[in-house]
Structure formats: structure tokens, C-alpha cells
Amino acid sequence: MWQVRKRWPADVAAILKGEFNRSTGEAERKLAEARLPAIAADYQARVDEARRRLADNRFRDLSENEINRLAAKFYAQMLPRYRLSKPLSPVERQQMLKDTRETLQTLAGNLGSNDASPVAAVTSRLIDQEGLPIPEDSPSLAALQLLVLRAFVELHKGVVSQLEGQPDYRPADERVAELIDREGKPKRTVRELIKAYREEKEDSWSQSTHDAFGPVERLLKDTVGDREPSTINREDARKIQQLIRSLPLNLGKRKALKGLTVPQAVETARKLGLPTINPNTANRGYLVHIAGLFNFARKEEWTATNPFEGLTIHDPVAREDKRDPFSVEQLQVLFGAAPWKPRNDSPDGKPSRFWVPLLCAFHGLRLGEAAGLLVEHVQENEGTPVLLLKAYEGRRLKTKSSRGTLPVHPELVRIGFLDFVQQQRDAGAERLFPDAKTNANGKVGAKLGEWFSKLVKDRGLKGIKLGMHSFRHSFEDRLREAELVERTALALGRRAERGAVAGYGDGVPIRVLSAAMAKVEYPGLDLSHLYTTDVAEAA
Prior knowledge:
Layout: E1 3-7, E2 19-23, H1 29-34, H2 36-55, H3 64-78, H4 90-112, H5 120-130, H6 139-163, H7 174-182, H8 190-201, H9 207-223, H10 234-245, H11 262-272, H12 279-299, H13 328-334, H14 351-363, H15 367-371, E3 378-381, E4 384-389, E5 404-407, H16 410-415, H17 417-426, H18 446-458, H19 470-481, H20 486-493, H21 510-517, H22 533-538
Antiparallel strand pairs: 1-2, 3-4, 4-5
């Protein structure tokens, strides 16, 4: 029989031991190959499930300190219920003593056979209260259940001791007695590390650093807060890295996620299709602060190593593309003067200066993509005007994902873009912007980019590398604020899909993209002075 063997991805290899090995059930190669899609889907489903478990912390076994603490918490919570609080008649006393001894005999049998069923339900509730869901087959769950059972036995022994006239009972089980003495708490937890770190550093923090550390603190407390820092290894750090990668945008402001732990919020957000934070926020807002915390732990000898050292999340935006976006106020200044004059005036014979910045602002186009558009690249798809982004002879696109079909933004329609396209079409033009020349290096619109950078400077607009490409960053900020489904946002931003959905299906329908594009707005930006006469009169 033909078999399929495949290694597990590195990020889940520690969970999915060995390798994927599945028989096709077929001896003939062609028949076996026909079963490959179903087997590949099964492989991907197991990988996705492992990654979800990593992300929501459900695959982390409890540490010994957590087991001790939870068992001690159970004993402390139940102890008041097992104290005699009212006088008993001799008959009541004898009956209770008989019943308790019978219960003890039964529990001793359970303990002798490692049967923790009498405390299974209460142990599950205890774990749920702590926000520490773990697999039912976890060895640490079995260890916790048995320790809770031992504490349960000691509670009943305490009742017998009280009924026999000895109210100050100390557990005979030394393990349980030690838990009570220590109150089940580890020597120094991550929670205590955070407290010490704040006491040391907080006075020197700016308000922005103070605000940024709050979400980091919540994340750590909801995942490893009760563990000793020295028990957190590189594998644990990578699990937290995976969780950060999946954090929903505006986690603390969403009603649907209120009251949930961070792992629970991530899982709920995934099911709701909520957008996630960008790599820059993940790295600078979370991983940098966590690495700093554990550097402090290493210097103060809480831990010998920093398991988070060097961990980052890949950012698809190239380093050279890092720059500030335009603010709405800057856009209002920019588009409030020439060449963006009322549409009954001519843009001085250089239509690229008028339209290319607007196309970049409302579609996230790069300079060469906008300046190099052909007239035939503006078409209709299912009744919706669209831009076709594709390579042609003399012009390449930056990446494979740069190809795309984008609905024309409603604001450009109001400004008269489709009328301009029709004028170019009627004139027999091939290129939409013939004035956007190609330089000696083959770059379309290079001179246009230089003109725009000078215009930005002349208008007194300040920011890091503010220029034509800043529009793409502004557009992607607007995409995030629109809170679109991730696959739709990636399609509008022409970013590569990630994970299991990558490469599946025929893409996002144009009607969905059109509705989503209409939600991409610049609140407070007023371009009504550019609207066509008909639109202005209708308004």
C-alpha cells in the first residue's frame, strides 16, 4: 500500500510527536494519488488544531507549583464547610461519625486504585476558575486530581477528629500538610516578578511606556502568571509568541471579548473573524517589553536565562518601506491646495499629479502601480468599476501578491475618476497617465515621486520619510480601523494570505470587496471641493 509521510512544522513538532504517516489504502499509484487531497486536508487540520491549542494555552501542562497551589486552594476553600458550626445531639454525633468513616473508607479505596472520580468535577471547576484549561489526557491533570483527592481525604479526617473531641486537626498526609503550611504558593512567581519590575522601573517610564505595559502584564498573568520565572523555557516562550501573533486588534475595547482571559479572547476572536494586531505592534508592543522583563529577571537572578531573547514576529513590510503614514490633518492640508483645485479647473496638463496621490491614498497603491496604470486596467466587474493591478511588458509588480482586482473607492467616483478614465479612453490613450514618464532605470513615475516629496516639504508636513509610499501605510491603518475580516483586508491591501486559508478558493468575491472598500474611510477628511458638479449639487 502507498503511504504518505510528512514531517510536522517546527512550531508544532513538540506536540505532534514523530511524523505524519498515513496509508492511502491503495496499491496502485494513480489511485493512491487520487486520495492525496483528502490526506493533505487531514494533515493540515491536525496542524491547525495544534496551533490553536498552542495559541489558547490549552496544551500547556500544569507545573508542580501550580498543582500545589490549586490543591491548597481547594483545601482552604472547602475547610469552612467541614467545620462543625452547631451543637449535635449524641445520636446526631454518632450518625455523622459513622457516615464520615464510611466515606473515608470509600475514599481510601479510590486513592489506593488511583481513581480520582469523586473529585473530577470539582477539579475541573477549579481549573476553569483559574483560566487554565488543559487537555483531559494531560498527566498534570491526573496529578492534580490525585492531590485534590488526598486533600479531600484529610478534610474528612478533620471531621472525624472534631467529632472525637480534637478540633485542632493537622493533616496526617505530610504532602497536604506541607501545602497548607506553604499555602500552595511558589517561592517567586511571574506575577511577583512583574511587581518587582514595576517597582524598579516605573518611576522612569514615560506615560506611553506605562500604557503599553498594561496589556503585556495582562497577557503574562493570564498565561504564566503563577509559574516561577525559572521554569519558563524557550518552548514556553514560543507558545506565547504564537499567542501574541493571534491577538485581536483593540482587545481591551471589544465588548465581545470582555471578561475573557487573553487565550480565551484569542480563540473567540478567531471564531468571529476579527482582525489581528500587526507585526510591528506584536514586536514593539509585546515582545520587546517581555524580553525586557526577563532581562531584569536574569540580572536579579530570578532566572539563569532569558527565554524570550531574540524572539520576533516576521513583518512582511520591508525595512526600507518603514515610514510614517499621513495623518488626516496632513491629508487635509495636502489636498486643500493646488493641484487639487475644484474639478472645473484643469490640473495643469499633468493629470498624474492630481490623480496618482488620490489613487495611492484610497487604494494603497505604490507609486509605480498607480502611475503605470493603463486605460484598459479600469474596467467593470459584476457591475462594479474596478482597477486591475497586473504586470505587463515594461512593468513588473513588486510581489506575487501585488496582483489584484480592486473596486474603485466611492470617494474617487465622487471626485470624477471614472469621467477622467472615459476621457482618456475616448482620446485613444494607452496609458492612463502619459505624463508620468519612465526614467532610465525603468521606474514609472520617478519624477512624479520627486515632485510630490518636494510638495510635502513645501507644505510643512513633518514625519519620518513622508512621501508617496506613506499613502500605503495610511491606507493599511484605515483597513485596520475598518475592522474587516482578515482575508478581505489582505485582499484589499494585496498582502499574501497566511495559514490554512492561503491558496484556497477563488479569492474574495468582488461584491464583498466593494462593500469592504466603502468602509475604508478617513474620518474628518473633507474633499467635497473636488466633487464633480452633479455630485456637489446632489449633496
